Amino acid sequence: MLRGTRDPAQLAVFPFPEPLELDDTFVVQATWELAGTPGVAMVPPALHPTLPMLISVIAVRGHAQVRLSCRHGARARALVIGTSDDVDFDGERLTVGGGSIVVAFAAPTRHLGATDVQYVTSLWPVEMEGRGLRLVQQEIDVEVTGPTRHPVSVESWDPRWPVPAMLVGASVAPGSVSLPRPRFMARPDLLAFEGSETTR
Amino acid sequence: MRFGIFFELSVPRPLTRGAEQQVYADALEQAVLADELGFDWVWAVEHHFLEEYSHCSAPELFLTAVAMATKRIRVGHGAVVCVPAMNHPIRVAERAAVLDILSGGRLELGTARSSTWTELGGFAADPDLTKAWWREYVEILPRMWTETAFSFSGLSCTVPERNVLPKPVQDPHPPMWVTVTTPGTELDAADRGLGCLGVAAVSYDEQERRTAEYHRRIANCDPVVSLVNPSVTTQNFLYCDESLDRAAEVGGAMAATFGLLNSHLLWTREWYPTDAYRSLGNQATRAMKETGAPGERRAPPEGLAIGDPDHVLAELKRWEAIGVDGVNFILNAADVIPQQQVLDSLRLFAREVLPAFRPAPVAR
After folding, report:
1. How many CA atoms, within 13 angstroms, populate the side-chain half-sphere of residue A31?
2. Domains plus CATH for chain A?
3. B113 near B82, Cβ under 8 Å?
4. Pick from B121, B260, B288: which is nearest to A76 by CB?
5. Does the distance separating the beta carbons of B128 and A110 come in below 8 Å?
C-alpha cells in the first residue's frame, strides 16, 4: 500500500502544540485537491497519502493550520505543514499571516447540521527532547451550531506550500473549540502499528 | 441460505499491467469454480480510481466474461453506481438487459451511490445529489425494462418517449438490490421492494435488528419495482482450512489487508461538508473521534467465515439463525493469499460446509 517517502528531516518542525480552549469563535475550513506532485513525496514513511492528496486550511480565532490529508495506520489524519497565530475572518475573507493566505468566502450555498462537518485530527512534527522527531497527535474537538458551506476563491497563497487545485469544500461554523493536550505521538519513520507512543 | 463470492478486484503494488491482468484471470477462475461447486452468486463492484483497493471499473464486462464461462451461477452488479456522470440511466438499463440475455436470465442488479471523494470528485459529481439520483434510478430502471414507450424528466436525466432496448430475459425484470452501508438504507430498500445487499461490517445483534425491521417493512411496501426482492445478504470473508490456526493466520491477513486498504479510501464526508453522507461508508463506519492509541489495530468484526470447516459452519449458522438470506464472501485482498489456496478454500467450504445449508436428497 502507498506509504510516504519524504525524508522526515525535511519536514517543517513546530513547538509542542499548546492546548487551546475558545468559546464564541468561528471554525473556518477550506480544502482543495493538489495536483502535480505525488502524494508519497509529501508525507514521511509513517503516513499513507490519500488519493488524491488534499491541502486544507483550518482557522479559529487566533490560530490557523495548513494541513495535508493522510492516513496513520487505519486512521484519518492531517499533517501540519504551517501554522499562524495571525488570523482574521470577517465573514467574507479569511486572512492568515498578515496576508500570506487570503481566501474569499462567497455567500453560503448550504446550511448544515452540527455534525455534518468533520475536523480531522492533526499530526504535528515536533522535535521532542530526548526522543527526536515525532508526529504529535492533536485532536480538534468542536461544538458548533449551524455550519454553512461556501464557494471560495484563493486570493493569495504562500509559495512555501503546495498550490491548491480543485476545491473540495469550505465551511464556516460558529461555536467553541478545544485543542486538548496531546496524548499520543508517533515516530515519523515507522508505520503506526510499530511507531506509536504516548507523550508522557 | 444462499452464498456468493464478491469481487473488488484489488491489485497489489506495484501496479503493473501484468498484475491487473492476473487479478482478472484469477477472479475468473474462482468464479468458474464457484459455479461448479454450487455457489449461488458472483458479485462485482463498480469503483473508479481506487488504486490497489479496487480495479473493477467496468463490472459489466467482467460479469459478461463470467456469464460466458459459467452455466448456472447468477451474476450480480454489486453495484452499479447511480450517478449520471458515471452511468446514464438508459445505459444502465441497456447494458443490464444485454447481460441478462447473454447470461440466460442470470442477472441480479445492485444499485449504489458511491461514497468516496476520489470517485465523486473524479466525475465532478455533486455529493449532495447522489441520494436523489439513486431514488430516480431505482424507479425508472424497471420502467425502462418493461415499458415500450418510456419517458421521464428528472434530476438524473430527461428522456423523450423512447423504447429502451433490448428487454431483459427475466420477466418482468432482474431482481434489484441496493448496497447498504449507511444505517437506514436498509429501510430505503424495504420501502421500495429492493433486496438489501449488505457491504458493511455489522454485529450479529445489529444485523438481527435491521433484518427484522427490513422484513417487517418490505412486507407492507409500496414497491417501485415490478418484482419485489425480499432478501437480506451480508458480506463476509472466506478462508476455510483444515487447520484452524493456519486459517486464522492466512484469512486474518486477508481481512486485515482489506480493512486497511478500505480505511485508506478518501471518504466524501471527511473533507466535504455535507449532510448527504452520515457515515463514512463501506467497512469504515466508525466515528471520526477515537479514544484509542493511533497504532491500535481494529478488532476484526464478529462472525467471520475464517477457520476450519466446523468454525465456519458455526458462524454461518448463526447468521442464518438471525434471518439473513445470504452471505457474500470476499476471497482475497491484494493477492495476499496465493490463488491455489483460494481455490482449495472454496473446495473445502463446498465439501464440508455448504451441504449443511442445502436440502438433503430425497430417499427413494
Report:
1. 25
2. 8-198 (2.40.400.10)
3. yes
4. B288
5. yes
Instruction: Give the residue from chain B lying closest to A54, CA to CA.
Output: B271
Size of the A and B interface in Cβ pairs below 8 Å? 106
Interacting residues of B1 by C-beta distance below 8 A, sequence separation 6+: B316, B319, B320, B324, B325, B326, B327, B357
Q: What is the largest CA-CA distance in chain A?
A: 50
A34 CA to centre of own chain: 14
> pLDDT digit string (tens) for A144-194?
999 999 999 999 999 999 999 999 999 999 999 999 999 999 999 999 999
CA nearest neighbour of A84 among A116, A59, A108: A59
Q: What is the CA radius of gyration of chain A?
A: 16
Dihedral, CA of residue A93, residue A98, residue A99 and residue A102, to nearest 10: -30
Cell 515536533 sits on residue: A126
The structure's pTM equals 0.95
Q: How far apart are CA B264 and CA B170, in angstroms?
A: 39
Q: Does B15 contact A at CB distance below 8 Å?
A: no
The answer to whether residues B266 and A50 touch, using CB atoms and an 8 Å cutoff, is yes
First to last CA, chain A: 31
CA distances from B222 to B152, B153, B226 (A): 20, 22, 10
- B153-183 pLDDT per residue, tens: 999 999 999 999 999 999 999 999 999 988 8
Q: Give the three-state DSSP class for A197.
A: strand
- Contact status, residue A55 vs residue A17, Cβ threshold 8 Å: no
B94 touches chain A (CB under 8 A): no
Q: What is the distance between the alpha carbons of residues A115 and A112, in angstroms, rounded to a whole number?
A: 8
Q: Which three cell numbers stand for residue A149?
A: 458551506
Q: Is residue A168 within 8 Å of residue A32, measured between CB atoms?
A: yes
- Residue B181 C-alpha cell reads as 452501508
